[in-house]
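for the writeup, i need someone to sanity check this before i put it in the appendix. the sequnce is what the collaborator sent (i think, or maybe the updated version? ugh). structure was predicted straight from it, no edits. if anything looks off just tell me and ill rerun, i have time this weekend
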Amino acid sequence: MRILALGNVRLLTALGAGGTRLQYYNGLRKRGHDVDVLDYDAVDLCPFIQSEKRLQLTFGFLIQALRGIVSKSYDVVIFSGAESWLAMILLRMWPARKFLLVHHSNGVEPHMYEKEWKHYRRTWWRDRLVVFLQEQSFVHADSIITLSQYDLDYVMTKNYKDSLHVTAIENGISPNFLNQESQFSRGLVIGYCGSWLPRKGSFLIERDITKILREFPEASFLIIGVEKSFDLHAHFPSDTHDQIRLIPFQQERELLIPYYNSVSILVTPSIYESFGNTTAEGMACGCAVITTPTGFSASLQNRQDAIVLPEAVSPELYKAVKELLLNEPLRLAIAKNGQARVQSLSWDTSVKKLETVLQEWLSEKRNGSREA
């Protein structure tokens, strides 16, 4: 297949979404497919619209997609990012179109907005307009691929596509994370890995982990992957600072393994995730994970694969961390079960699923075009 892939993230292995895209596209190339990729830097074309980044990307998607299909005959055009709504609408109307239009989601943005609205109990008319436009990038695609059953269920509920033209393909994780001989008995180290964002549950962590550190002076908190500008004083009271260790952003995800292997309890209390690479990686490294029912975590068995909180609110995180600190048998059981649960997350399997579904949808479109 000749594939043009356009996305709203930078293709860097250290970044969750960017690293995921690289794995899929490089995997397809290894399987013999011709894949041209345009990432955030290529799509960010309209500096004259500085006031609205999403609109800037919208026109960038359209310009680059038109350049691509005019200059080369593609079988499949893949968009990742709901800013592609305008390009998707116009390409859907392309005369005698033979190429397949696919939205391979980094996250279903309308779903993310709805989860945030519900959590913060507020919304604005401007957000609803944005969501309406974003939905067009899904409605006007021929087919949709999500990264989790969680997002797929939302897509089906919204009737963006029928069941034959949507699928969920879970991410793989690096082979270096799999089949580890982990030492599950560890010190009382609580860990978090990722950007310090409200959507990732930072507000909840600040409140509940502060309480834990004060109640358990022998425990420590490892914050992995934050920017060098992270101001500890702005997020945690000074009496907890001796128990907190900051690890800067790592350029390669494999560099995270030693840190994960030092963590007993990994917290990932996000409001929304499309998949949640950190959760899967932490489980692979033998961490007992406390998470929320979003993305990949929504498929986990509560109190077996992980502690799955009902939602990202206080004091739920505090209660779960406290229980695992005091109940070592439960903590060890969850760590072992969680590690076993993620062993099937292979990139070879995920890429093969992507290849197969693209070929099936392309064949259907070509046959349908000939019949028409």
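The first strand starts at residue 2 and ends at 7. The chain has a mean pLDDT of 92.
thx in advance!!
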